[in-house]
Structure formats: C-alpha cells, structure tokens
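Annex B. Sample input.
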Amino acid sequence: MGDRIRTASTLLRIGLAAGRSTPGDRLRWWGLLGAAAAVAFVVLATVATVATFDGRETRADARGPVVAFGEHTDAPLLYRQGGDSVGGRPVSLVFVRPLTADAPVPAGVTRWPEPGEVLLSPELVRTGAGEGVLTRYGRFAGTIGADGLVTPSERIAYVRVPDDAATNDRRWWPVSAFGSNGGATGEMVDQPAITSPLLALWALTGLPALALAVVAARVGSRTRDRRSGLLQALGGTWRHRMIVNIGEAAVPAALGSLTALVPYVVASLHSTRLAPTGYLLDRRDVAGAWPMALAAVVVSLLVVLALVVGTHRVRRDGMSTRPTTFGDRVPAWRPALCGAGVALVLTSQYVPRKAQLVVFTSGTVVMWAFLSSVVALLTRRLGSWIADSGKRRGHPGRLIGGRWTHAHPGVIVRLALAMVIGIGIVAQMQVWTSRLGVHSQAAVATHQRIKDTVIEVTPSGMTPAQTDRFRSSLPTGSVLLTRTFHDPGPPEEPWITVGGTCRDLRVLRVECDGGGAAPPAGSGAATPPAGNAQVEEMHRWYGDFDFVTVPRIDVAADGTQSFVVVTAAAGQLAAVKQAAFTLSNPSVQVTALGGDWLGSSRSRLPNWIQLFGITGVLFVLVAGAVSAAAEFVRIRHALAPLSVLTGRRHVFRSVTSWHLTVPLLIATVLTGVVTAWHSVFFIALVKEGSVSWTVLAAGVSACAAVSLTVGLLGARAAAREAERWRPAAD
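Annex B, continued. Sample output.
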C-alpha cells in the first residue's frame, strides 16, 4: 500500500513538472484554465437556473390566493386579475376589494392601500414611470416588497378599486387567504418547464464549452502521447498514465474552475441583470444554492480532467508502444455517434408532441459534437488522394500536405470543431428568433407601418357620461369609433361594423350619408377609403367590414362592442391608457392594433437565445484561437527544415494550403449543407420561423475566410521559423 502511494505521488510530481516544461505548455496552461472556467460557468449557470425555478415557485405560492368556493360566500376579499403592457412587455394587474377591516394580504404587502390607490413593483416603477404608470391605475401608494415578487424584475401591480366600483362580474373571486396556487399571476403565467432553458443553455453554451475543453486538452499532444507510450513500455498501466496526465492538468483546471465562482459570488451578493433579457437574477436564490454550487464546481473539474485523460490513450493490446490518439485515426464510434444524432433529429417528428423538442435538441447536440469527426474521416481519405496526386505530378507541397492530412486528421477536427459549432449556433439563433408565427409577423409589420396610432379599448361596460369623459380625455386630434360584432349572417354581409360620427369618419376619409342615421351593414353607404394607412391596417385585421354612421358614440354592456381610437400621431398609447383606466378601472383592456400578438413577438425567448448563443460563440472563438495557435506552434517547427530540402520558400504556402485550408474549406461547405438541412427540418417540425439564407451565407463566408487565414498564417509562421532553424540532435 505504501509503495502504491509513493508511486502515485512520484507520478503526480512528474505530471506537475511536465505541465511547467512541456513544449507549448504556456498555451495549454492558459487554454485549460479558460476551458475549465467555461465548463464550470455553464455548470454553475445550471445550478442557478434550478435554484431560480425553485425560488420562483416558493414565492409564487406565498402570494397565491385561496379562493373560497361553495359555502364560503362571506369571504373578506374580492380578487380579480387583469393585464396591461409597458414598453411592449406584459404587466400583471391584480384588482382587489377588501370587504372587512382584517382582509388578508399576500406576501410582500403589509396592508392594502386606500380605495383608488395602487401598489407597484419596483421594476414597474422603474420602467413605466415615463409612461405614466404612477397615475394610470390610481394614486401611487408604495411598492411591493421583495417577498411578494417572483423575481426582482417582475412587473405587477395591486390596485384597490373604489368602493363604488361594480363587483358583480363573475371574474371577481372571493378570497379567504393567501398562500397557494401562485402560478396564475405575474411572471408565473405560462412559465415554461425547467427543461426548456436547460436544453437551450447546454445546446448553445454547454457544447461549445466542452469543445473548448477538448481542444485545450489536446494542445501540445504529440509530446504527451510519446510520454504515454514510454510509460506503457516501462510497464505502466492506464492508472499510472492517468495520474501523470491529471498532475499535468490539475493546476490550470483547478484555477479555472475557481475562477468561474467569481461571477457566482457577485450574483449571490447582488441581484444581477442579465443582458439582453432584462431579467434580474434574484440573489437570494443564488446564495441559497451555495452547497450545490460547490459540488457543481467539483463535478465540472472532474469532467475537465476526465476529458484530459480520455483524449490521451495508448493501444490496449500491449503489443505496441505507439500511442493511439485521435491524431492517428478517427475512431469508428465517433462517426457512428454523429449518425445516431442525425437519426434522433429525423425521428423527433414521430415521437409524442411534448417530447419532440427534447429529442430534436438531444440529436442536434450529438450531431454537431461529432460532425467534425465525419469531416476528419473524409479529409483523411482526401489526404491520401492529395498525396498520391502530388507524388504523380512531382508537387512536394501537395505530397507533404496530403500525407500530413492523412496522418493527422485530429488537427483538422480541432480546427473544424470551432467553425462547425459556430455556424450551427448562429443558424439556430436566427431560426429560433424568427419563430413569431403568422399573426406575430403581421403585428410586427403593422407596428412598422402605423406604429400605435390605432388603439383598441375593450371595456365591459361604460355609461354615456363615462364615454363622454373618456372622449374628452383623449389626446388632441383623436378619433373615437365603435367596433361591433354581429351574429354571422349571409356570406356577403360582414360580421363587423365600425361606427363613428360623420365628422370623425371624414377625418379618416370615409364617406358618410351626413344624416346621422346608421346605414345597414353591407349597404355600401360608408365605403372603405383609399390612401388612409390606419384604415387599411384595420381591414387587414378585421377583414371585410363596413363603416356606419352613428349619432352618438357608446358601447353596449353585452360585450359585443368596443372602442377604436385613431390618434393623430404615434406615441399616444400611454395617454389613451391613462384615460381608459381612470374611468373604467378595472374592466378595461387597451392595446395597439395587433398588440396582443406584438407582445408575444417581443417575449424574452429571442433574448435568452441571444444570451446563450453569444456566450457559446465566444467559447467557440476561444477554442478556434487556441487550436490555431497550437497548430502554428507545431507546424513552424515541422516545416522549417523543408527550406533546406527544397530551396524554395513558397513550399510553406503550398503545404499549409493542402494540409489546412483545403480540408477546412471542405468542412465549411459540408457544415453549411448540414446546417441548411437542419434549419429547414426544425422549421418543419415546429411549423414556425424562417431560414435567413443571408445569415447562413455570411457564416459560411466568414468560416471560409478563416480557413484561408489559418493557412496563410501557418505558412508565415513556418517561414519565419525557417530563417532561425539550425539542425539539432533531436
């Protein structure tokens, strides 16, 4: 036992010493540090996500209303939910009517405000002050405490209605207490399952971090592979080689893992806003998960060390001391796994609907992770063909470059890995952010053409006096119309009519009979105008409707009528909301034309995809830079003697072109084809979104430029080394 411990200690010291003296050690040291930090960062982000979801559910339950059904008709509080939007993002409104002096209050509220007053969340005050939210729903009486908010960035308001407000609507709930069922308000509305953000995180950020770890582990691998073969020749087992490799990588990997704790510490001390999502990460959730975070850092460190050990292996038959590495051949299981990933993508359309996205994402990760191995397999065969062609034609650069490509496909894999994953991430970011749907795309187009100059106001009832006050409170130059839904009749008769006074209709360039009587629907007395953008957009959304003249603007209480406000200029939505909520609180909904769909298109999903994707692209860029730098170090020493053998310097450009540029260009083309197929298949699966061929072409062109640059820089590095090269007894 003592001998084993001493042997392990000796091997560990050998590894530690090798980490300080191996050729290219500085590049690998920093590469491993960055890779370990990236992997630990993603793992800690996973911990923060899980902790955040748990904290959200706990705080949501603490403020959830306990509805009194059946015999509990003497509930102390009436509760009703509503909605609004600020800055294009939804706001959750909770209207309350305390019936007793000791009416219960939810978490975050110490007492109910006075009638006509409102409590706002701090984020709503911050983002909506410029739009008048401090007076829109009532008099501002204070902010909601942190315990009553699912997240610090939540936008929610508690509005106490006046004592004379009508409460006979069925949407009012009798509430006896708070403390359950909190998933119906605020950011808990339609909250996705935790698997959705975790899949996006690992597909867009985790995979590039693991790719960076693989690339960093193989930097300077030639010397390490020779050492592994020597240890085997001396009788060492895989355990002995593992100890040496761990000793060599332990210090930078441990420092990198600890470095990833820095942002976690900051997030646990201060609630951190995640750009570009605008989401505030609650420090309480992050701080409460410290035990899990420390365990996660240890796990991430073990993963990096396992990758280091797994990427440096020797033959298992014991008959040869030559190391078996990825640089010698492409293991058959790697292309097989790529095929398995493609199979998962193809079969995702046949699994149950809820599992389709999970299966598709899993197949995508596997496919992109091992697509570079397929590229290496093809380029190795290409290398043989290039070498044979160079031999027949007497072309030394082609001969040498082809043989290098055949002998070292792992080099191409590590360089292609960054480009393959990078193109995939960029394409997926574009496709995901284009998933707006037909109605959302129409809403975006409408907003681009007329902004918010057509506003729909839907009250559940408004008296003639309230209607007059509402109209007088509208911005100057506004036109107030009514929209009426009719029972379906003959196909030639429209089921929607828009009514207004002759004066208002003429402002919109609509003809009217001038008599003040409302012509029947379909009579053609009021014809659609030409050249009025607002009216044209109304026809796009309402279909074929008629304008009718009415002597007075009013709405019925049966829910078949609503208001349409056409403003003289854009940017008046907040003023219209102010007028509507003040008069008809809480039974009113105010949105721009198509605003419900516009809000969905501005959801945070595209921003989250950008956050994960941009982080993943940064990891990919670092992986590509480390891999290219390592290849420059190797190629400059290997190519330097060729200047003596050939007497010509252009051989460097020829060798690097055939060894690096040509295989990488092939990898780029193959990746572009696979990405196009993958994106189109994804759109067919989810039945949303579109492929931007411009973005894909830009990504492929950028990778092609990188391929050319890598070849030129490799040739330049070899040419400079040749000027200083002298024969040595090595």
